Amino acid sequence: MNNNFNFSIPETPSELTELKNQLVKHTNFIYESCQKRFSIKWKYPLIIRFALHYTTAGLAKFSSDGHHSLLFNEHYLKDNPEKFFKVVSFHEISHLITHTISFNAKPHGIEWGEVMKSFGLPPKPCHNYSHNSLPCVKLNKAISFNNPVKSWGRIVNFN
Q: Which of 8, 48, 13 is nearest to 32 (CA)?
């Protein structure tokens, strides 16, 4: 796998498309490599879409029939390409591995943390990535990009 990725901020739509294509290839490589590393067998190829908005960088979705998918936020990718290749892709794949090995494991629990550590990454459930490309949307009066807010039971810092 070629690890010589261009981590510069994309300036044009075609550069963003190329960055997304590189991330898909990179993430699929990790997904396939994990079968041997963790002694698991995925039933189907991974589905990857860029369909997240607001403050979530990535999301793993599980299906009982084995059609798992990852969703990424292209706005965060655009502003933080290196973090997506070095952290977010592994973070979300770690959820798939944890769910496959231990169906009842908590999303950011001990098992998930051990998988993250096996990749040489700290088990951090939240991010504080740049959000320059996020569309400005008023979610509710309590949310401000300058203050930490409670989101899904955890503190999210937008700075």
A: 48
* 106 and 153 Cβ atoms separated by less than 8 Å: no
β-bridge mates for residue 48, sequence order:
70
Helix axes 110-118, 89-101, angle to 10 degrees: 130
Give DSSP secondary structure letters for 118-131: HTT----S------
Gyration radius of the chain's alpha carbons: 16
Spans of all domains in the chain: 13-156
Q: Judging by DSSP bridges, how do beta strands 149-151 and 69-72 pair with one another?
A: unpaired
**CB contact at 8 A, 112 and 98:** yes
Of the candidates 96, 91, 88, the residue with the CA atom closest to the CA atom of residue 41:
96
Q: In terms of Cα–Cα distance, which of 46, 150, 148 is closest to 95?
A: 46
Mean pLDDT of 107-117: 92
What are the tens digits of pLDDT across the range 5-27? 667 888 899 999 999 999 999 99
